[in-house]
Design brief:
about 950 residues; 6-stranded antiparallel β-sheet; 5-stranded mixed β-sheet; 20 strands; flat
């Protein structure tokens, strides 16, 4: 059930509409029902009348048909005339019974029907059947005698009268019933008019009630607002509405507005009173006392203190200036520093403080009879131009209201100006007095100024002369500036020449590498074939000579690689492949590589790994292994007895902060290589990281090496975001520690790379601090070359290998020494070798004979180089599927990509390791057989 509170205007209007619609609906339903009933009665009368009429006609037809059929048969004797008689005799009684069903409630008509039935039966029994029987017996005379009297004619005439009377009675009955229907129709019309009038009256009553309920409350609101307007702004009046709908909500909102306006009016009135109080006041203490006396009663305060800003800097404080209703024994503190107590904090934060029910509040409100503790304390700041110039404290027995706070906020804006004006007047008066005293002093000083004026004139003359001298110096400086600009242009031109010189140097080193590798290739191949001594024609001593030649060739190859590394460093082209590195796998791989060296030299090789290390770090795993292999190689090389230890541990944060100050010291891992070798003097520990530098000349003579390894390792460490730190003592051993972050900063790496390239293009042109490759010292056989080139990892190849037997190889090489070495080596494997001296000769050979299983293609050749020749071979219809292995002495980074792009199947650099070449040939020859 709805409460009055929920009956809104919308609900009232909706209820009125619903009631009207319900009344209209009820009227429509009643009228529709009555019309439907009338329509049903009309339809019933029409259908019943037609059925009765049809049945009376059918009975009359049956009787006539029987009579006609009987006479036709009697006249002709034809049995076909009896057919209508037979059918009508079977139908008349059924039609009569159906007709009787319409008159169940009319006894008179039922009696008429009984008489009709008896008459028909009498005719059939007296006239119909006997005459037909006589005819069938052929008793014509009896039939004539019968018709002389014709008793059936009376029955037929009587039957016609009965049927006609029955029809007339039925018509009369229908006429009477139709008359009743017309009366009922008139009554229905009057009823409909009455219902419509009643609905209209009810609707009007509902509309009047709803509109009156709405308008009445609106008139109450408007009349109250009119009274407020007529009373010239009397905001104390309130609107009262008894209804509980939207009008009441409007009235409540208007009352809230009136309360707000009343509060604002109260605030504005009192602000005006305080503003007028300040006129004519020239003393701050008088102003403070007047303010407290005026405002305290307004807000219901029984106690007040006024503090004024004094001092500056560290001496800035709020001093007590006046009080309101202070006791005889003054308890209020005389001064507060900024931030001290609520007064000082209020001045510092520039916001008010309100305390309700304060405990341990020393001040009390004193009367003649007693002392009362206040229940509410309010501390407010007074600002002028964003600076707190005063703080006022009020205490009251009752809580401060919101309108009191609003009043004080409104007063603050104006009162700060008043305080500043009064302070300004006091300062003006003080300054006026001081100015009068100073006037006399100024008069005395005027005479002194006149004397000084003469001196100034003399100084101005001197300054003029000095200015002329400065102008001359400026002209001289402009000339020097032009000369410096010309020198700068010359330096820039010289820098460009230096950059070109550095590029020429890089190209020269690359070409020299090619020229050196070409003869070195034949030396290594032939010396290897000699010390392998497959033909057993050399003595053991001669095999040793050949092995020394091969080892020296490898040393020369390492030196060439170092020279290429310098070329790449100067070019500043270094690429890192950053991936996840399993920390536990690093020492295992290093142990496999260096255990044989430790056994050979009789040293102990230990690995220590801290448990708290992360399992995975993100860095370049290949560069990490190259650095550690170089450090371990040096450790084994310079250690004659004792141990070499590889220690993996968490980096010391203090060390990281010292060497890498702008990094997260907690996210570094340390790889320490500790040996008991010869050690390094303190003054040489930084020198060893410079290119081509060693501790002294004896070190180079005793242990060998070029002095590039540690320099390259240090630069790699910087690229990986870390560093290498050495701690060593002469004759006791050394500790080289590689510090790397858990995850390489790729953005920092790109920055370092850019700095490298910029350094490579700098005028100095000499930057030998970066490389993308580290070869261990040649004195350590186990790490002398890359793993793919190590002799112990290669499988033995024997003469007459089944993969090489009867295979034809086309060797394209311009250097006779390499041709000799390669032909001898290939023929020992059972291969048939054809030699072409350049690319043009190769194409001519292929045109005459293209039945080759594999092509070995040198890249640097006269007439037509290997790139162009390879492309032409791939276009040859019979050679496009033949594998081509490129041979080149250029070991630059892009060489392999260029060879493969030209169409080569594989790539191998000079000097050629024959085992590696045979392995590649076996792979491609096997693939060709499969195809």
């Amino acid at each position: 059930m709805l409460t009055p509170r929920n009956i809104s205007i919308r609900f009232k209007i909706a209820v009125g509409y619903i009631l009207i619609i319900c009344c209209l609906g009820a009227a429509v339903v009643a009228v529709s029902e009555r019309i439907q009933s009338l329509q049903n009665e009309i339809e019933t009368i029409t259908s019943r009348d037609m059925n009765i009429h049809n049945l009376i006609t059918s009975i009359r037809y049956n009787v006539i048909s029987m009579e006609t059929s009987q006479r036709g048969y009697l006249l002709t004797g034809d049995e076909n005339y009896l057919k209508p008689y037979t059918e009508s005799k079977a139908e008349w009684e059924d039609n009569l019974n159906r007709l009787s069903g319409f008159f169940n409630n009319d006894n008179e008509k039922r009696r008429d029907l009984d008489n009709i039935k008896a008459t028909i039966q009498h005719w059939i029994e007296v006239s119909g059947e006997p005459t037909i029987a006589l005819k069938r017996e052929n008793k014509t005379e009896a039939i004539i005698d019968y018709f002389k009297n014709d008793p059936g004619k009376e029955d037929v005439d009587q039957l016609r009268d009965h049927l006609e009377q029955l029809r007339l009675k039925h018509l009369e009955t229908n006429r009477i019933y139709i008359g009743e229907l017309e009366k009922r129709n008139e009554l229905l019309t009057f009823s409909l008019i009455g219902i419509l009038i009643a609905v209209a009256v009810v609707s009007f009553i509902i509309v009047a009630y709803v509109s009156n309920a709405i308008v009445r409350t609106i008139r109450q609101v408007s009349s109250t607002i009119t009274e407020i307007a007529d009373s010239r702004g009397d905001l104390t009046k309130r609107i009262k509405v008894n209804s509980k709908d939207e009008i009441r909500d409007l009235a409540n909102a208007t009352n809230v507005l009136l309360e707000s306006l009343e509060a604002q009016s109260w605030v504005q009135t009192h602000v005006a009173e305080v503003a007028t109080m300040n006129h004519g006041v020239k003393d701050l203490k008088q102003l403070a006392s007047s303010f407290l006396s005026k405002v305290a009663p307004m807000i219901g305060a029984s106690y007040g203190v006024f503090y004024y800003r004094k001092g500056a800097g560290e001496q800035l404080r709020m001093d007590k200036l006046a009080a309101y209703a202070a006791g005889g024994d003054e308890t209020a503190k005389g001064s507060f520093r900024f931030g001290e107590g609520l007064v000082g904090q209020c001045a510092q934060d520039k916001r008010p403080f309100l305390l309700n029910q304060p405990e341990h509040y020393n001040a009390s409100i004193t009367t003649g009879l007693t002392e009362i503790k206040p229940r509410s304390v309010l501390v407010i700041p007074v600002e002028f131009e964003g600076k707190v110039i005063a703080v006022i404290e009020f205490a009251s027995l009752d809580p401060f209201l919101a309108q009191h706070l609003k009043l004080l906020e409104a007063i603050e804006d104006h009162f700060g100006v008043a305080i500043d004006n009064v302070a300004g007047r006091m300062e003006v008066e003080r300054l006026l007095g001081e100015s009068q005293a100073m006037t006399e002093e100024l008069q005395a000083q005027t005479e002194e100024l006149q004397a000084q004026s003469e001196e100034l004139q003399m100084q101005q003359e001197e300054m003029r002369m000095t200015t002329e001298h400065l102008e001359e110096q400026n002209l001289y400086a402009e000339q020097k500036t032009k000369e410096l600009e010309l020198a700068k242009a010359e330096l820039e031109d010289y820098a460009e020449k230096l950059r070109q010189s550095a590029q020429y140097k890089t190209n020269f080193l690359a070409n020299m590498s090619h020229e050196l590798r070409t003869p070195l290739n034949s030396i290594l191949i032939l010396s290897q074939m000699l010390y392998e001594n497959d033909s057993k024609s050399l003595s053991p001593e001669e095999e040793g000579y050949a092995r020394v030649i091969h080892s020296s060739g490898n040393d020369l190859l390492a030196l060439i690689d170092d020279i290429l590394d310098l070329s790449k460093i100067e070019a500043g082209k270094i690429a890192l492949i950053v991936d996840e590195v399993n920390v536990s796998e690093v020492p295992e791989m290093l142990k496999l590589s260096f255990d044989p060296i430790a056994d050979k030299k009789g040293l102990s090789f230990l690995i220590e790994q801290q448990r708290e290390l992360p399992p995975i770090i993100r860095t370049d795993g290949q560069r990490l292994q190259q650095i550690l292999k170089n450090l371990l190689s040096n450790a084994f090389k310079f250690t004659e007895s004792g141990t070499v230890t590889l220690k993996l541990h968490q980096a010391d944060p203090s060390t990281i902060q010292e060497h890498l100050p702008d990094t997260d010291a907690e996210s570094f891992i340390a790889f320490s290589v500790i040996d008991t070798g010869i050690g390094i003097p303190k003054d040489k520990q930084e020198l060893i990281f410079e290119a081509f530098q060693q501790v002294d000349g004896n070190t180079n003579r005793l242990y060998g090496g070029t002095g590039l390894g540690l320099s390259i390792c240090s630069e790699f460490a910087h690229l990986l975001g870390g560093c290498i730190v050495v701690d060593s003592e002469l004759h006791k051993g050394s500790t080289f520690t590689l510090y790397l972050p858990f995850q390489i900063n790729e953005a920092q790496f790109e920055l370092n790379q850019a700095m490298l390239e910029a350094a490579a293009a700098a005028p100095s042109g000499i930057t030998a601090r970066h490389t993308d490759r580290i070869d261990p010292p040649s004195a350590i056989p186990a790490v002398e070359a890359a793993p793919s080139h190590r002799e112990e990892e290669q499988s033995e190849y024997h003469e007459g290998d089944s993969a090489f037997l009867n295979k034809r190889v086309l060797l394209v090489e311009d250097d006779a020494r390499n041709v000799f070495a390669l032909v001898r080596a290939l023929e020992t494997k059972g291969l048939e070798v054809t030699v072409a001296r350049n690319g043009q000769e190769c194409l001519e050979i292929v045109d005459t004979d293209s039945n080759y299983d594999l092509v070995l293609m040198d890249i640097m050749m006269p007439v037509m180089d290997g790139f162009e020749t390879t492309k032409e071979l791939k276009k040859h219809p019979l050679m496009k599927s033949t594998p081509i292995i490129a041979l080149t002495a250029k070991a630059m980074k892009s060489d392999q990509e260029s060879c493969l792009a030209a169409g080569a199947s594989d790539y191998i650099s000079k000097p050629i390791q024959m085992e590696q070449l045979f392995s590649l040939m076996r792979v491609w020859l096997t693939k060709q057989v499969e195809h």
